[in-house]
Design a protein that fits this description.
By secondary structure, the protein is mainly beta. The chain has a single domain, classed as Sandwich (Protocatechuate 3,4-Dioxygenase, subunit A), CATH 2.60.130.10. 6% of the residues lie in helices and 26% in strands. The protein contains one helix and eleven strands; from the N terminus they run E-E-E-E-H-E-E-E-E-E-E-E. The strands form four sheets. It has a five-stranded mixed β-sheet, with no helix packed on it. A two-stranded parallel sheet has the order 1-11. Strands 4-5 form a two-stranded antiparallel sheet. A hairpin with a 6-residue loop joins strand 6 and strand 7. The structure holds fe (ii) ion (FE2). The site of fe (ii) ion has 2 residues, from strand 6. Fe (ii) ion binds next to strand 6.
Length: 149
């Protein structure tokens, strides 16, 4: 985590959430998933770094049993979103970033049902051999000085 000049930023709050291995968020499955499943809040250290353990998100279909599904059908589009993680990144004195990062190599990167993919938001997921960690993903956020929104 740095500012635009590349200076590491300590104390940046990272609020992150993602779906489970079946493509559902905790709020979609009360009583099935534990409350706050696959959610976390982290803070960068003095070197601007952050890390956490989680799962590799999976692609999922947006609800398509109503008008949105009818519209997608008329357009000949599928309802899937590429696998992603949601982020709110904030620190006093900087513009808050609300975004998501996408899993590199996902089948739906070129056809996101809600057109959210940008090349700069694609995060690599490198396989890890040995241990209990299967993937490692790095993503560097850069914050712009200004007021939080
Ligand atoms: Fe999502």
């Amino acid at each position: 985590m740095t500012d635009l000049e590349g200076t590491p930023l300590e104390g940046v709050r990272i609020d992150v959430w993602s779906d489970n291995e079946d493509g559902f968020y905790d709020v979609q499955q009360p009583g099935v998933q534990p409350r706050h499943n696959n959610r976390g809040v982290f803070v960068t250290g003095p070197d601007g770094r952050y890390w956490f353990k989680g799962i590799k998100p999976v692609s999922y279909p947006i609800p398509d049993d109503g008008p949105v599904g009818q519209m997608l059908g008329h357009l000949g589009r599928h309802p899937f979103r590429p696998a992603h993680m949601h982020f709110i990144v904030s620190r006093e004195g900087f513009e808050t970033v609300v975004t998501h990062t996408f899993v590199a190599g996902d089948d739906y990167l070129q056809s996101d049902a809600v057109f959210g993919v940008k090349q700069s938001l694609i995060a690599p997921f490198e396989p890890v051999v040995g241990g209990d960690t299967k993937w490692r993903s790095t993503f560097d956020f850069v914050l712009n000085r200004g007021e939080a929104q």
